[in-house]
Amino acid sequence: MHGFIPPNRYYAYLSWTDVRDMTHKENVVLIQPVGAIEQHGPHLPLAVDSAIATGVIGRALATLDPAIPAYALPPQYLGKSNEHCHFPGTLTLSAATLGQILTETAESLYQAGFRKLVFANAHGGQPQVLEIVARDLREKYPDFQIFPFFIWQVPHKVSELLTPRERSEGIHAGDAETSVLLALLPQQVHMGRAKAEYPNAFDANSLLSLEGKLPVAWLTSDISTSGVVGDPTTATAKKGEKILNQVAQGWQDAIAAVHQFQGFKPLSAQP
User: Fold this and answer.
1) Class of domain 23-260
2) To the nearest 10°, the Cα dihedral for 85, 91, 94, 95?
3) What is the average per-residue pLDDT within 140-156?
């Protein structure tokens, strides 16, 4: 059941008495991997985002300082993936359903005495959902600390391993994701089917973009015939190992920062 997560760091392997007797639960870091089951071109499995979320968190927890109490929850495999709805195999929840699942999971943890929860999201189509959930939980439970993190936003230097075009336009099933899957699940990657495809949505002088400061709502079928937005043909397992190690180290630093965070200091009274 634990997959890439070290068994001693897998929340579901605890007993109820383990949870009851756990000391300083308010400072235990719980991590909810959030992925998706959606198309990633003809060469990658549907499970890419879920595999990356659990693979990165598992690698980070494997060598995390033993003094830091941290556990990964069972992954939330299904996400909000309706941008890929025209590609067979994609499974999607609505934003409301995903938000409700994460909210009720968090509330169960709160009732058990935990006060620190990290969302480790690996799907680019749903950060806003997790941010809304986190803000609403913060309002409802003032002593609950929620951290809506994106898997790729921790410190790393992955961009140095990619071409300039891939860094700027490779947003789905390209070099980075394919390399990581070659390292994690090589038997599920079919490099003979890999093809490069970049979007041709805007001219060079346009103020509009897919994911920039002035974005346009889009579906993958608007910008790609293969489901790929990037170049997976340059991916290698060796590169994937480097990416995994860099991002996992960034996650170790992030988990340590969450563990050390003691909440916001009271604001001084205004005159």
Assistant:
1) alpha beta
2) -100
3) 97
Q: Band of the pLDDT at 204, cuts 50, 70, 90?
A: confident
Report the C-alpha gap between 57 and 252 in whole angstroms.
9
Handedness of CA 245, 251, 255, 261 (dihedral sign): positive
For the chain, give the number of residues: 271
Cα–Cα distance measured from residue 180 to residue 23, given in angstroms and rounded to the nearest whole number: 36
- Return the domain boundaries, the chain: 23-260
Is residue 211 pLDDT above 90, yes or no? no
The structure tokens listed for 156 are: 């790393």
State what percent of residues in the chain have pLDDT above 70. 99
pTM above threshold 0.90: yes
Q: Pairing between strand 116-121 and 70-72? A: unpaired
Q: Which residues contact 78 (CB under 8 A, 6 or more apart)?
A: 36, 37, 91, 92, 93, 98
Give CA–CA dist 225/227, Å, rounded. 6
Q: What pLDDT digit, counting tens, does each position of 76-110 carry? A: 999 999 999 999 999 999 999 999 999 999 999 99
